[in-house]
Each structure stands twice: as C-alpha cells, then as structure tokens.
Design a protein that fits this description.
Elements (H helix, E strand, L loop, with lengths): L1 E6 L8 H14 L5 E4 L6 H6 L17 E3 L6 H5 L11 E5 L4 H12 L1 H7 L2 E9 L3 H4 L1 H9 L4 E7 L10 H4 L10 H8 L3 E5 L4 H9 L4 H4 L7 H19 L10
Parallel strand pairs: 1-4, 1-5, 2-3, 2-4, 5-6, 6-7
Helix pairs in contact: 7-9
Length: about 260
C-alpha cells in the first residue's frame, strides 16, 4: 500500500518538524526510500537537515528521491497549488512536513483543489502525524485534523515529552482523576477514529541545541565529535527510543517487516 505521511499541527512549537526529521531518519535507518517534501520552502527544517548538498555543504538542486522537494505553502495560491505535483512522481512513500499552521494550509489546499482527494485517488493511504504539547491550544487541532481527513486515514498523536516533567503534566489531555478537569475532546475523537497515541521521548536541551548548531541529522549526531561524549550518548539513547516508538506503528508509516 502506498503511504502519504504528513506531520501537521496548527500550533507552533509542538515539535512538528523535529518529528519529521525523526521520521526521515527512521526511514533511512530501515533502508526505505521516501520522497521527502518540505512545505516551508527554502527555510524548512527537513530541507535544512536532509537536503542534498555539494562537497562544500551548500544546498544544491533537490531531486525526487535524492534530497528534499520544497514548496512555499505559506506563499501565494499558485505556490500552494504546486504541492499537487508531488503526486506526479508516483513514489510509493511520501513524507511531507507541513509548515506552521499546517492544518489551516491543508484545509486551504483541500478547499481550493481537493488535494486530499487527489492523494486518495492516487492510491495513497494518508497518515497524519500530529505532535502535541501539554497546552490546550496544541490539542485543539486533533479533532479538526480528523474531521478533515475522514474515516479512511490513519491518525497518530505524538505527545511531545520535551516539555513535561511527568504524566501529571498531561492533565489537559487525559483529564484529572477526580473528574474536575475533563479530558480533551480530541482524545475521544482520536480513539473513535482508531487513532494511536504515542510519546515522543525527551532529549536533553543542550544536545538538541548542538545538533541544530551544526545542522546534523540525528544519525550523524550520534557520532559527531563536535558534540561532547555525553551529548552523543544522549543523542544515541534518544534516537533509539524514537525508533522503538515508531516501530509500534511501522505499518502506518509504510515500513514493512
């Protein structure tokens, strides 16, 4: 089955692009060729970290299957319409990182020219990856996402543990034991749609800061000696944890075996 995997949110800072980078890293580790697509144009993180570069480290022309195709989905309508050309490549697996306010953008392209309908008509099963934080504003997109996608999509909510100290911090998502705080309505809708709720592990902030400073993929960060040994170890442990988490939904991500 062909898969069209989308990392999407309408709340900045949810960890959406980090999730896309983790997915790209996961596909590489499993020897899976995915067509990588960045919806944030030339400033997108997927392009920055996984784009094709020359010997001097400069980004060069990106090709399908060899680099990251980029689209300015926050641009003019004609810029947004170009995202439909992704379907012309016939790739069996597409990973698309939508920009900030990406759910709104997807609603716009669906209304304008039925992009989601075209994805399904081309034989793709859409998989929505929606990272959330403990804040209610981050959780409100879950129901909107499922209303937009419909019954024939897979949905995964990634609880971003980067912002929490313990399970009690998710009280606005799970509700309180005494019932004084109700669970997020999105959680029930997710369960009713057969969606999955997973935790995205926490990485020490200093390690992530150096990974970003040196524009490293997560695989490269595990051995790059510009990171102190302890940060390399943190990166190794975190990457392993992320991959183990994704292994539980690999069928929804287009990874076989």
């Amino acid at each position: 089955m062909k898969r069209f995997v989308m990392t999407i949110s309408d709340k900045g800072g949810s960890g959406k692009s980090v999730a896309a980078r983790v997915l790209a890293d996961y596909y590489t580790a499993h020897g899976v060729d995915a067509l990588l697509v960045d919806g944030d144009g030339e400033v997108g993180q997927l392009l920055k970290y996984h784009g094709r570069r020359d010997g001097d480290g400069r980004l060069v022309e990106q090709r399908p299957g060899d680099g990251v195709l980029s689209f300015a989905l926050h641009g003019e309508r004609t810029d947004r319409e170009k995202i439909a050309t992704v379907l012309d490549h016939g790739a069996p697996l597409v990973l698309c990182d939508f920009p900030a306010a990406g759910l709104t953008v997807l609603e716009q392209v669906q209304t304008a020219f039925g992009f989601l309908d075209d994805i399904k008509a081309e034989g793709y099963k859409p998989t929505f990856i929606n990272p959330i934080t403990p804040f209610a504003a981050s959780m409100r997109t879950v129901k909107r996402m499922i209303d937009l996608g419909g019954d024939d999509c897979d949905y995964v909510v990634l609880r971003n543990q980067q912002f929490v100290e313990g399970e009690e911090d998710w009280i606005c998502w799970t509700g309180s034991d005494d019932g004084s705080i109700k669970p997020s309505s999105g959680r029930k809708v997710l369960a009713d749609a057969g969606g999955i709720e997973l935790d995205m592990p926490r990485l020490r902030a200093g390690a992530m800061a150096l990974i970003d400073e040196f524009s490293l993929t997560f695989e490269a960060a595990c051995s790059d000696t510009r990171l102190p040994r302890y940060h390399r170890k943190y990166a190794q442990i975190w990457r392993k944890g992320c991959h183990e988490t994704l292994n539980t939904i690999k069928d929804r991500l287009g990874v076989e075996g």
